[in-house]
Amino acid sequence: VEKPCIHATLLIGSVACLLLALFWDKITVINGSKHSVAITVINGSKHSVAFLTLTALLAVVDCTTSVLYLPFMAHFKSKYLASYLTGQALSGLIPSLLAFAQGASDNPECITSTTTHEVYPKYPEPRFSVGVFYGCLLCLVGLSWLSFVLLNRMSRCRKEWVLYSKKSADFKGRASGRTVSTGSDVSSSDASVDSSPESCGHKSAQKLDTEPNEQTISRRTFIALLLTQAYICSLTNGLLPSIQSYSCMPYGNTAYFLAVNISSIVNPISCLIAFYVKPKWIIATLPGAIGLGTVCAIYAMVTAVLSPTPPLQHTGTGRALIVLTWVSIAGLFAYSRACIASVLRNNTAGAGHKSLFFCGVFTQIGSTVGAVIMLSQAS
């Protein structure tokens, strides 16, 4: 069921980016006044309905990826999950680099009016227009769509598909933590396997995910991992992005710029590191990474609450500490999310598809809770 939904979301994203690239600055005349296609008044300010609608459609595409792409990756060998998570992290880095190339991070110049003697900011002209920026995003969405088609159609890609047994997808009896084999021990007469056309009936598909002697996890551990995933995403996708400017800007534009951009670089690197760590070390390092990330998040929140006069504001130590804090948050939580996805994929005895689906669901639950909390505080 993921395939048609993924195609639908990519279509929506492509259309939204195309319309934004073409019409983001188009206006129409209504009763002698110029308006941007359609206008609505929110909190006393005028906003473009078309722009808000198209942006909301892009947000829908972004929010559905975790519940669609993660389960889809269960059809492939587990080693490819690292590629997905790294690509997901790069999806934030590439648009940031585009915005940087556009000149969005350039500081404004303070100009004094010769008539009123008031000081007002003069922002530098962008190196390329907003339409070009959305055009670049459209190219990225198109490239993603092409890649998805090739993953399903190319014989070389289909060789990496695996089957999973739905009989073993039930977590009943897993509390014993017994070791099971997910190799060729499964009978070929077992009819309850994934029936997707790319898997069943294709010689290029493997019989089953070949991870010998996988250790199952208990129901309690499974639920704990999902709740941890929701907790991390409530911070990284909901709470912390809303306060980052309040936390960093008192230390200067340079500190804010470094915190945002270095975090975007550290994110995919942390995902890659997680998949080169041995399983026994994942269990040992995961609690420490989450705990240290939580400490850094608390410090970031404290600086935001104390803004505009946070601790060590006018010192080099304060600037270095705030950058290190936000980079650590990005790296530690990205590592933790990758570890959780790896454990759910490899240690659920054939239920990797179902486990990754729930991982995506709890990702969105956590993100929603964090966003609602910050929205309620802002309003």
UniProtKB/TrEMBL annotation:
Membrane topology term: Multi-pass membrane protein
Compartments in which it is found: Cell membrane
Keyword flag Membrane: yes
Pfam families assigned to the protein according to its UniProt record, in alphabetical order: SLC52_ribofla_tr
Bias-annotated ranges (Low complexity): 176-196
Keyword DNA damage: no
Transmembrane segments: 6-24, 49-72, 131-151, 222-243, 255-277, 289-308, 320-344, 356-376
Record-level GO cellular component terms: plasma membrane
Chain's role: Plasma membrane transporter mediating the uptake by cells of the water soluble vitamin B2/riboflavin that plays a key role in biochemical oxidation-reduction reactions of the carbohydrate, lipid, and amino acid metabolism.
Family of the protein in this entry: Belongs to the riboflavin transporter family.
Protein name in UniProt: Riboflavin transporter
Organism: Medioppia subpectinata
